[in-house]
Design a protein that fits this description.
The structure is a single chain. Strands 1, 2, 3, 4 and 8 form a five-stranded mixed β-sheet that branches. This protein has one domain. By secondary structure, it is mainly β. It holds the Pfam family Lipoprotein_15. Keywords: Signal. This is Lipoprotein.
Length: 223
């Protein structure tokens, strides 16, 4: 795979079950019920503009030409900015333009960058998609890049790891995705896993929106 020219972008989000870290009202048996508690304080660092340089099918810079990008799925918005922040109890994280934390997935790969979250997984963990022009603050400009997803859209990577939000986070500053399935973690501004406020057990992901009420299967998803 071609060498990737990375530009900066960061993302972090997480879910918690420890008493000291859990969002107010959090219940491990009902991951959709918690309310948020975190209040972010900006962690000032350098801002960087993405540079152009992409190669379809491989990892590329967020600033690459987007003329070959596939259309965005219905209801999906671009990730317009990545900002490194610090949260009480959680510590460092990365948020998007709406203040939602970004996550990384252990079943993905960063060398080479590759995503393994598709279909219903991507419904629960929407990928951080880009047109190549995200605004960056508080992250290293050489840590960010993109990877082309199977549907042709481009997903932001941090240290090679594809970034996601979590639909279980209903408000900015929540990290209900932290430790879900033992494979999802809030991402630090350098792309490493944030291992603060880990849940005592192994939380389950919320049900994907496409799951019908008539579906008799349990909500024991493997993502």
């Amino acid at each position: 795979m071609a060498e990737m020219k990375r530009t900066v972008v960061v993302a972090v989000s997480a879910m918690v079950a420890l008493t000291a870290c859990a969002p107010a009202g959090y219940n491990a048996a009902d991951p959709g019920a918690a309310e948020p508690v975190a209040v972010a304080a900006a962690d000032p660092t350098a801002t960087a503009d993405p540079e152009a340089s992409a190669e379809p099918g491989a990892s590329a810079s967020p600033g690459a030409e987007a003329e070959n990008d596939a259309p965005l799925p219905d209801g999906v918005d671009l990730t317009e900015s990545l900002t490194g922040k610090k949260f009480p109890r959680m510590g460092s994280a990365v948020v998007n333009q709406d203040g939602f934390l970004l996550y990384r997935f252990d079943r993905d790969s960063n060398d080479p960058p590759a995503t393994n979250c598709e279909d219903q997984c991507a419904e629960v963990w929407p990928p951080a998609l880009t047109d190549g022009n995200p605004k960056l603050k508080g992250v290293s400009d050489d840590a960010v890049g993109t990877v082309t997803r199977p549907d042709g859209t481009r997903q932001i990577t941090l240290d090679g790891w594809p970034l996601y939000t979590y639909i279980g986070d209903k408000k900015p500053g929540q990290w209900k995705g932290q430790g879900v399935g033992g494979t999802w973690f809030v991402v630090n501004p350098d792309g490493s896993k944030n291992l603060e406020c880990l849940p005592k057990g192994t939380p389950k992901a919320v049900a994907p929106p496409s799951k019908t009420k008539s579906d008799s299967s349990d909500s024991d998803y493997d993502y």
